[in-house]
Write a structure and sequence with these properties.
Radius of gyration: 21 Å
Strand order of the largest sheet: 6-5-4-7-8-11
CATH class of the largest domain: Alpha Beta
Number of domains: 2
Structural class: alpha/beta
Largest sheet: 6 strands, mixed
Strand content: 25-35%
Oligomer: single chain
Number of strands: 12
CATH architecture of the largest domain: 3-Layer(aba) Sandwich
Number of helices: 8
């Protein structure tokens, strides 16, 4: 892992000490933990029965009911809950735009969110897209101990979902960090991210160059996923068209987020530390 990324993890960890993750009431996870919850879990107080669902603890199946009815039923107990954060990072090459603060901002923001989750007594999992989704090495430790945060995949997060989707915890808080600069239908991936979550937050992280490309002159363009290069001449009409296309993309994501009950904001990598109030406004963070 690059030294600059390692330092950004340290910086984000330090910055995250100022915040705590806001936990929705429905973020009860069903695991024994530090908070009393409303829904069924795994403490000693029996509450009810329900039909077995894939992933349920086999120890709680009532085999007597199965013998009588041939139906798998699990016992429900009053829970103590540990809230959980699933942090989903776009590992594609577009998140590592040369001569910008983008890759460092990914690391800093991820570390900040993980630290704020720890301040809220949350467990966490950090998922990185690539050849499918994989857990980041050492992601249960403090961010300064993470490893293999590599932003070099040729695949978009949507393509990664098709190869190997992440195994999210049910009723956790989920946060997607991506520039969202890939073709496709936002609603499709948002529905997959939102399914079973207590809340979903989408943070579009852009470099200033993503937002404000040069207005005039020749420009060599490199496709960050494929490596294909081309030469184009930028004039005012092309710059205007780019701005309109970006605005249209952002609007499509915003509309899709509203449709599936997610929250979205856009941050500029070079201005990250001065724009964290946006994360408070979307009710993701609160001052610790």
């Amino acid at each position: 892992m690059e030294p600059a990324i390692r330092q950004s993890l340290r910086d984000g960890e330090k910055l995250g000490l100022r915040y705590a993750l806001q936990i929705p009431q429905v973020a009860a996870s069903g695991f024994i933990g530090s908070r009393a919850g409303r829904r069924a879990g795994s403490s000693i107080d029996f509450q009810d029965y329900r039909e077995y669902q894939p992933g349920d603890d086999l120890r709680f199946i009532d085999w007597g009911i199965y013998a009588r009815t041939d139906r798998l039923t699990v016992k429900l107990f009053r829970e103590e809950v540990t809230p959980h954060l699933d942090l989903i990072l776009d590992g594609s090459r577009s998140m590592n735009l040369k001569n910008t603060a983008k890759s460092n901002a990914v690391a800093q923001l991820a570390a900040l969110l993980a630290t704020s989750a720890a301040n809220a007594q949350c467990t966490q999992a950090v998922w990185l897209s690539g050849e499918g989704f994989q857990r980041l090495a050492n992601d249960t430790l403090t961010p300064s101990a993470w490893d293999k945060l590599e932003l070099d995949s040729k695949r978009t997060p949507e393509q990664s979902f098709e190869i190997l989707p992440p195994k999210f915890r049910r009723l956790g808080v989920r946060v997607l960090v991506s520039d969202l600069l890939w073709p496709g239908e936002p609603l499709q991936i948002l529905r997959r991210l939102r399914d079973g979550a207590a809340a979903l937050f989408v943070i579009q992280l852009l470099a200033r160059d993503d937002v404000e490309p040069p207005e005039h002159g020749n420009l060599r363009v490199v496709d960050s996923e494929t490596g294909d290069e081309s030469e184009i001449y930028i004039d005012s009409s092309i710059a205007r068209q780019y701005a309109e296309n970006l605005a249209q993309l952002q609007q499509s994501w915003s509309d899709a987020c509203r449709q599936c009950g997610a929250h979205m904001t856009t941050l500029i990598a070079e201005d990250l530390e001065t724009s964290l109030s946006e994360l408070e406004a979307m009710q993701l963070l609160t001052p610790a």
